[in-house]
Amino acid sequence: MNFTISETYGEKPISEWLIVKVKDFVKEKYGLNVQMTINPESMIKFLEAVIK
Hints:
By secondary structure, this protein is an all-alpha fold. It is built from two helices and no strands. The chain has helices spanning 14-30, 40-51. The radius of gyration is 12 Å and the shape is globular. The model has no long low-confidence stretch (mean pLDDT 80).
């Protein structure tokens, strides 16, 4: 899945936005309803890797 991360200053962390977008993508592409959580430590490592 291709996606773009852009920084927006808001009240919700990026993980909440990412969960919504991934769930929407899976529903549209595959017709499945999924439950998803993101480990905060993994999200930090992911963002650090993307920023490099």
